[in-house]
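Need residues for this backbone.
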């Protein structure tokens, strides 16, 4: 078996920045065990697996540890691969992805890819004190200005960008919390606006419970961040800069129960998987 595979940097127009995702183009369904092996082998925050289905594509996402319900950057990477490597039109009609989160669509114009995703707003909620303490392994727990929860992720708003950048979490303790991930955010400050003048807010995302200590750029987190900051800024379009070591930019249009996530992508590697199918679980 030889399977085409690509590594794509998503939510960036520069190679070796943004969030890398692996994308496997399949002729048909593969065993879950084999997909888990490949995702563990790639050791990226997400590996996407695509095969044709119902006038669209079946899309599944795996971290090195688990399958996830929703992933923005690997969907963006998948649309980019289909548009640039397979000759599939990505404009009219849009690409259709059948996923664990329902039907998702992607379109492309002038290398800018738009994703139609569900809105996942975070309602007011108080996080456990253990979670806040785990966000600062080497100092006092941060003091949030506001907090929320959307059923999968905690959202912690800090006073300023400097507080977001300064966090040094205890990932072992953070991974023991009962959630997919923790989104930490603040209004964009002078440092970010000097590089990204249109940025409205900054964020970081921690997901040690699903095998990703810090995700470089998290599209699905912006399904919560978009509604959060759109309400506070009083506008439908907001732009986020994820201030991880690699960094990336996500533009969000809030449309009631849906959001549009916009970003660019760059292919940095292409090859073929030649290993035989292995219907086993990855080693722990």
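Answer:
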């Amino acid at each position: 078996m030889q399977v085409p595979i690509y590594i794509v940097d998503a939510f960036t127009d520069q190679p070796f920045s943004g969030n890398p995702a692996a994308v496997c183009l399949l002729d048909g369904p593969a065993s879950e065990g084999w997909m888990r092996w490949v995702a563990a082998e790639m050791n990226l925050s997400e590996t996407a697996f695509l095969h044709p289905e119902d006038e669209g594509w079946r899309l599944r996402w795996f971290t090195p540890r688990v399958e996830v319900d929703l992933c923005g950057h690997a969907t963006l990477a998948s649309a980019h691969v289909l548009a640039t490597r397979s000759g599939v039109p990505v404009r009219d009609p849009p690409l259709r992805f059948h996923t664990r989160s329902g039907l998702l669509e992607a379109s492309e114009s002038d290398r800018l890819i738009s994703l139609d995703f569900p809105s996942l707003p975070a309602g007011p909620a108080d996080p456990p004190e253990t979670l806040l303490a785990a966000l600062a392994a080497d100092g006092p727990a941060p003091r949030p200005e506001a907090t929320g929860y959307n059923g999968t992720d905690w959202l912690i708003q800090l006073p300023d960008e400097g507080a977001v950048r300064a966090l040094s979490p205890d990932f072992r303790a953070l991974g023991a919390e009962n959630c997919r991930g923790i989104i930490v955010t603040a209004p964009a400050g002078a440092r970010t606006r000097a590089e990204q003048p249109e940025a409205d807010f900054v964020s970081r995302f921690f997901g040690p419970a699903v095998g990703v200590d810090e995700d470089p750029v998290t599209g699905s987190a912006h399904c919560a961040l978009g509604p959060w900051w759109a309400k506070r800024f009083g506008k439908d379009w907001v732009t986020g800069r994820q201030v991880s070591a690699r960094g990336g930019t996500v533009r969000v249009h809030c449309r009631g129960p849906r959001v549009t996530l916009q970003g660019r992508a760059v292919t940095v590697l292409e090859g073929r998987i030649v290993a035989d199918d292995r219907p086993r679980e990855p080693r722990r």
